[in-house]
Amino acid sequence: MSMRVYEFAKQHGLSTKEALELLHDGGFEIGSHMAVLDAAAIDFLEKKIVKPSSAPITKRTDSPVAESKQVHSKHKESRGADVPVERPSMQSRSNRSTQENHSTHDAVIKTTQPAGLVAESMMVSEVAEKLGKPVTEIIMTLLKWGSVFTKNQVIPEELVVRIAQHFGVPVVEVEKKSEVLLDKTVDGGELVQGRLPVVVVVGHVDHGKTTLLDYIRKTRVAAREKGGITQHLGAYEAVTDHGNIVFLDTPGHEAFSKIRVRGVKVADLAILVVAADDGVMPQTIEAIKHIKSMGVPVIVAINKIDKADPSRIEVVKREVSQHGLLPEEWGGDVVCMPISAKLGKGVDELLEMILLQSQIMELKAETAGQAQGYVLEARLEKGRGIVATIICQRGILRVGDYFKAGNTVGKVTSLLDSHGKRQHAVNPSIPVLVAGFEELPEPGDLFEVIDKEAYKKARLSLEARKSLAPRSSTAKDSFNILIKTDSNSSKEALIGSIEKLSKKLDRGYHVINSGVGSISESDVMLAYNTSSKIVGLHIKPEASAAQLALRLGVEIKLFDIIYKLLESLEERSEKAKPTKMVRKKIGEATVLKVFDIKNLGVIAGSYVKDGRFSKDGTVVIYRGNRKVGEGAISSLQRDRKQVKEVHTGYECAFLIAGFDAWQPDDRVECYLEVPETSK
């Protein structure tokens, strides 16, 4: 009976890597844990191992990596002496892995909180609650000391200690105990530890990426997204039966191409979600290109099998193979997993594949030295200031660290994990919300911890560079707009989309200013002074700003979905597009009598034979078949009264600017400039 490598390993208490190593040593050319073993390979493996019950007991170590090395070392000895070796059961591995992942997630520093106030950064409202004092009293105390804070702002550790001393409350120092699970030292003496796999979920819009993460995390993120699409890059640590996994949820809308690239950049593994009923779509192809360019292993999740014909699974496999992702059952190395994210069908098997793949990759991170990572998302949060989602790839990030990120610097004032719990320090690959930025960083910026002196120098350098930066000029042939969004990545995606849209329009848009956060009075004043329109995405104006805009006549348009915003801009541009005018014949008349009136000019008394004559029109005069003149109507009368129009069957008199050589029986045609589409 045939089975896959990972199935055999699981059944016999081996890791997939150990099974693959045994097969390679035995001369079997098998490179994937999803490869199907034939009878010869199974027989070979069974001869190399024994049942766990008959094997000697091996000594367990505290370090999972050390344990793996011990087993691997014995395994090597057994191969040399051809003596069977016991392997720990998969169940014990899974349980131990889950416990270790939990300890990693719970941050590397534990805090004990006996009676008293803990010396750590916290919000003003928290301080008031723990001291049993009104919030206003804490705020007034801080004001007396020259510090202005609102109840939702975080105050630094030094002020917390001072407040506790002021009110006679004992201060409890944080007990710091390192729980980093060390594996070995590398060149330079830096320490290395095992870490959680970081998985990016990519694919076309509405193919079920967020629904998949909903099922895994048991939350309702998709239900909170406007228009059913995800418009931010989120990072979440999911606790599964197979171990902890960090997932990155990237948007599938075309406008967020750059965000998807950054998601893949920090990932160890990519899940490409393809809807069985739709198949490969434009953003699917783009995601495949990004995955290949980053060299990231990929698992294809064929979603929505609950609403598609079973034959569509093979169709999707054929489509992805045409773009270089050859399924393993067709001789390739790409695992294709049919799932229903809505019903949860096949999701457990997908998670198991992720953990199996990460075990083979032996993911590790350096924990010594300064923390380094990437900014995934940044926004302005009321009460906390500028915050950003960070994933560090090396080092341990702690509260109080000074840092640099792109064109901004700061000091970590608080750390919140993906479950909203406050942490004092976090390990690599753990997503964390960092507060303490002086300015908004850009998504994708390198985030690195620096010492205090380097922080001071970087701050001075950035301030000098900012003061020398040239101001943007206003484009003459474009609409001026001012953009405000809820996050930097939304702002970046929106600006990129507007620039792309403007290239297609006769009259495009010039972004005079952009920012993150609510629309303020200063935004309204800037828009008023530059004749601009304000466009907001996921935000609202402050009450005072809304009143000021109404008073000054500044237009504010708010949107929750980016493509609705872009449609509105395109519609406005089309309406303002200059209308092409054509000259259209609207009437014909015959001159009956000519009047030369002193101080007025030569007037043609005529009879309208067809159509109408308009005061806004121009005329062409024919004598026989020869054109003798033309000009605009400067005066049109009927019954000696000035009129705007004269219709068929009526007599009229008109005075033509630039022509007075009238003769009876001249034929006069009247023309009017009308839009090209008019009939």
Descriptive account of the structure:
Helices cover 32% and strands 30% of the residues. With 679 residues, it is α+β, with helices and mostly antiparallel strands. It has 6 domains: 3-88, Arc Repressor Mutant, subunit A (Orthogonal Bundle); 117-172, Arc Repressor Mutant, subunit A; 197-362, Rossmann fold (3-Layer(aba) Sandwich), CATH 3.40.50.300; 366-468, Beta Barrel (Elongation Factor Tu (Ef-tu), domain 3), CATH 2.40.30; 479-575, Rossmann fold; 581-675, Translation factors (Elongation Factor Tu (Ef-tu), domain 3, Beta Barrel). Strand 10 (234-240) and strand 11 (243-249) form a beta hairpin.
What would you say about this model in short?
Helices cover 32% and strands 30% of the residues.
